[in-house]
Amino acid sequence: MINIEKHWYDVVVIGAGGAGLRAAIEARLAGKKVAIISKSLFGKAHTVMAEGGAAAAMGNVNPNDNWMVHFRDTMRGGKFLNNYRMAELHAKEAPERIWELETYGALFDRTKDGKISQRNFGGHEYPRLAHVGDRTGLELIRTLQQKIVSLQQEDKAQHGAYDARLRVFAECTITELLLDETGGQKRIAGAFGYHRESGEFVLFEAPAVVLATGGVGRSYKVTSNSWEYTGDGHALALRAGAKLINMEFLQFHPTGMVWPPSVRGILVTESVRGDGGILKNSEGKRFMFEYVPDVFRKQYAETPEEADRWYTDPDNNRRPPELLPRDEVARAINSEVKAGRGTKAGGVYLDIASRRPAAEILKKLPSMYHQFKELADVDITAQPMEVGPTCHYVMGGVEVDPDTASAGVLGLYAAGEVSGGMHGSNRLGGNSLSDLLVFGKRAGEYAASYTDTLAKRPKVNDKQVAVAVEEALTPLARDGGENPYTLQSDLQDVMGDLVGIIRRKGELQESLSRLSELRERIRKVGATGGRRYNPGWHLALDLRNMLVVSECTAKAALEREESRGGHTREDFPKMDSKWRQVNLVCALTPTGEVDLTHQPIPTMTPDLLALFDKSELAKYMTDKELS
Ligand SMILES: Cc1cc2nc3c(=O)[nH]c(=O)nc-3n(C[C@H](O)[C@H](O)[C@H](O)COP(=O)(O)OP(=O)(O)OC[C@H]3O[C@@H](n4cnc5c(N)ncnc54)[C@H](O)[C@@H]3O)c2cc1C
């Protein structure tokens, strides 16, 4: 007889990064009983790793900034494939969400006159990233956790227990969402998972679930993402009947560490370039001036002199090309390396040492200094760093309603990196931290109000629970099954080699047939040992999520015959305005295959269209759309 620990909540939030914590706070403030579930330790999420800052048009450093400029930058960055309504809400609400963090106790760096300081970042017209040195994510998580503790203290005073209305389940992985399908309509009824340490199963009965599980980067070997980003939320949503959009768009951050091999992929923050760092090839040439695409030519400097003047006089000079959106810089580095002008380890040089005094580097980039000193024995105040592209962020994700964050299945919501649409084909740096605050809050609010509309709670189906138990136990029961680590490595090879930064038709076709072979092998995955802390078993369970998400990416990448943002096709090197009108949508067939369809993207409202010059829109839109 399998023992299953049972809990009863109004709202279950899966994920304890910024999106999950902000959603949980909002649902709790609405009076709901809320569980926060986290695969990793509490406080250890992608959000904590964020370095550069959170983008919000507060206009503290340049008063010309406002939500309309931020909206324009976000749409340009996403090459106009963004869900315009999400980009609008994000630009309008981000400043409020940042100021609100201060009321929770956040301590941002300040300007001389005491306002929240804001720094430059790629694709943002004005200094816009609220930051705490290069440890912004740490402050964000610390503050949200502090708010949670303060709410728990209120609950202790009112209800006699700290976790009466807000409880954290750390090191607990959700493997399945549970649905009530009575009357032919799917409604969320709960979530099933296991405690990582004991291997014991756990069931959360709840009418509303917020997915806040972050990204998918572990499907690639060279990635800035950590072990838990196996696309669980994306896969859970698919299996529950929701859809994924834009999965072909993956952001390869231009600057990951490339040396030594053990740390390849770890992020080198864009703040290095925002604060004056420049990129050079092995011949010592500052090469980015040669890679400014026509659509951005007007906004970027043509000479190093103009670019350097911009740091002190941004109103009369144009930005350095090192601050182009990330997809452009990543492709440029890739081209330099391919042309034989890379470093021995396959990267290029990022130099701040010759550009800023050591004391300033230490003050503004303390984490980068320690990262390079400890991991690569490089002193960034005296030597250049070696960098190259690393898989960093997934623009694609769960299709949501922009206002409510509803994922299209009753009771299911998604926010943060797991959701799709907001960033279009490419995310601007800093826009994720603000995204997760804006839409985390909205998801929590609407999940809570949804539970108020229910006449009775959806019922958990015991058969579904039995299937979830069996699914989880099968790898342990299988003798001589495939090794999960080998399977993960093989999957990463397929994605890195065939669905990487530059894509080609033949390779994408090959990736799909290799993924289909992997599907068969993953069905036979085995894990030795028992249920007590067993990472091999955990990975065996994660693999099916990584696989289905990778299939979505490969299928959509093959289908989209153009290059845009985080999707570059060597055989279709240009943007095509016909493709801008289309979202590629993935759903699962009843037999679990990925089904891909085209869906028209929502048409931008005239008031928002009027924020752009017609000549600029003409670079992205069809004549029909413009008329
Ligand atoms: C090194 C680095 C630097 C970055 N710097 C910046 C920056 O400066 N500015 C910016 O805007 N963005 C930055 N980003 C991106 C940004 O940090 C992330 O996109 C963002 O934090 C994602 O937040 P999230 O709340 O959606 O998910 P995360 O913070 O990734 O949290 C996901 C949570 O879900 C949990 N989880 C996952 N699967 C399961 C499961 N099956 N069951 C239970 N729990 C699960 C995880 O344990 C975790 O708690 C950076 C990213 C990295 C990696």
Automatic annotation (TrEMBL):
Catalytic site positions: R326
Keywords: FAD, Flavoprotein, Oxidoreductase
GO molecular function, one term: steroid dehydrogenase activity, acting on the CH-CH group of donors
Record-listed substrate binding positions: H253, T269, H392, R427
Residues that, per the record, bind FAD: 15-20, 38-53, 232, 417, 432-433
Domain Fumarate reductase/succinate dehydrogenase flavoprotein-like C-terminal: 489-603
One Pfam family cited in the UniProt record for this chain: FAD_binding_2
Cofactor: FAD
Superkingdom to which the source organism belongs: Bacteria
Residue ranges occupied by any FAD-dependent oxidoreductase 2 FAD-binding domain in the UniProt entry: 10-433
Protein name: Succinate dehydrogenase flavoprotein subunit
Species this protein is from: Catellatospora coxensis
Lineage: Bacteria, Bacillati, Actinomycetota, Actinomycetes, Micromonosporales
Name of the gene: sdhA_1
